[in-house]
Amino acid sequence: MTVEHAAVWELLADYGALIDMMKFDEWLDLFGAECRYQIMPREDLERGLPAALVLCDSRAMLDDRIRALREANKYNIHTDRHIIGLPRISNDGLAVEAPFAVYQTDQEGETRLFATGIYRDQLELAGARLKIRDKLILLDTFAIPSLLATPL
Amino acid sequence: MTVEHAAVWELLADYGALIDMMKFDEWLDLFGAECRYQIMPREDLERGLPAALVLCDSRAMLDDRIRALREANKYNIHTDRHIIGLPRISNDGLAVEAPFAVYQTDQEGETRLFATGIYRDQLELAGARLKIRDKLILLDTFAIPSLLATPL
Amino acid sequence: MTVEHAAVWELLADYGALIDMMKFDEWLDLFGAECRYQIMPREDLERGLPAALVLCDSRAMLDDRIRALREANKYNIHTDRHIIGLPRISNDGLAVEAPFAVYQTDQEGETRLFATGIYRDQLELAGARLKIRDKLILLDTFAIPSLLATPL
User: Which among B88, B133, C23, C100 counts the fewest CB atoms within 10 Å?
Assistant: First the structure.
């Protein structure tokens, strides 16, 4: 079955925008009932050492993680902005790669680059809706202590 | 009436590129005959204090503002670069949200992040052409003194 | 002959992703048999002084350059990340402009903005595949000594 590429672009755009608006319940709903979410330093994958920094292999686990982050972020107040670049999409529309940059703005209104990397997503159709089955986030940046305090 | 999503992408791409090329007459022509252009700090909107930093509620006002900025920028020489990320588009194609980052390069050739934020646009069809009826620019960044010296 | 805009987006996405993955043979294969690749400071073009910083006017020359860069980069170890923004595409799909930002991450895992600019590409169809015939990279940033040590 083939998916319209426009639907894939929209899913990616929703993904970034919902994090930036802190609408985490809607964000979670972009994932399939069975799903996996991983963050991995890019160089580890390239060296054949694919140890995830974050691995949530069910939606319940991802839900837990998001709740914990929201609690932690009461003390690290910032806002996020995801800029997602042009994606590469497989012919069937179910495998997608997209580069991203995430910026953070602190309470003084200063914005800084936070991290860059690439998403590698496996998608699935749940009825008429496109969902994320497997999201692998390959991070370029690994020098930021607070790196895992926000969903990427 | 439904608008092709590709036309929305093109309008957004034109919007950024025309500012970056300083083609402000063509840029102004992207707006409808009746239009509004607002810049607002994101946090003010979220707190329910929607006071615009910039509010132009007619095309004549927007034209005036652009002329003033061009004059001012004779003394603050820089070039802009807009990177607009994947947008979210309503089903009818007339409401669109797109994250952006603006970079500025000074006369020494150094490029810095200037601001990030999100566009929230209401579009309209003027004959066959898609135009901007209402542009709300929600800014993440508010710590930059020269922030309003350039169209965003 | 008209080209699907989706094919143009994919070509741009491939272009950035293949550099970032250091898959330079596949990257080279995005160019036509006869091709040109130029890097030029934006301001020089605007002043009517279009002197290229880099000019490869055949695929063999581009191949040579890439090999030289790969050799040089053994001593300047970093990874690249291209974020390519929404492009402007001509009606026939064969002329395209796209803004970009390139980030570099060093061996300590710190990511910095490297350069911004815009691509101006002329494309062609080689059988069913879209290829780059002429790529002009207009650079905003010109203050970075190592600027030409990486393909942009």
Answer: C23
The CATH number of the domain where C40 resides is what? Answer: 3.10.450.50
Whether residue B152 is contained in a domain is answered as no
Q: Are C48 and A81 in contact (CB under 8 A)?
A: no
Q: Which of C87, C100, C140 sits opposite B13 (nearest CB)?
A: C87
Instruction: Report yes or no on B151 lying in a domain.
Output: no
User: Which residue range is the domain that position C111 belongs to?
Assistant: 5-139
Asked whether residue A97 is assigned to any structural domain, the reply reads yes
Question: Could you report the per-residue pLDDT of C6-55, keeping only the tens digit for each?
Answer: 899 999 999 999 999 999 999 999 999 999 999 998 877 777 777 788 89
Backbone angles phi, psi at A13, to 5 degrees: -65, -40
Domain assignment present for residue A76? The answer is yes
pTM for the whole thing? Answer: 0.94
Strand segments (E) across chain B: 31-41, 54-56, 79-84, 88-89, 95-105, 111-126, 129-139
How many distinct structural domains can be found in chain B?
A: 1
Mind telling me how many Å the CA of A52 is from chain B's nearest CA? Answer: 27
The pair phi, psi for residue A85, each rounded to 5°, is: -85, 180
Task: For residue range A67-115, list pLDDT tens digits in order.
Answer: 888 787 777 788 999 999 999 999 999 999 999 999 999 989 999 999 9
C113–B113 CB contact, under 8 Å: yes
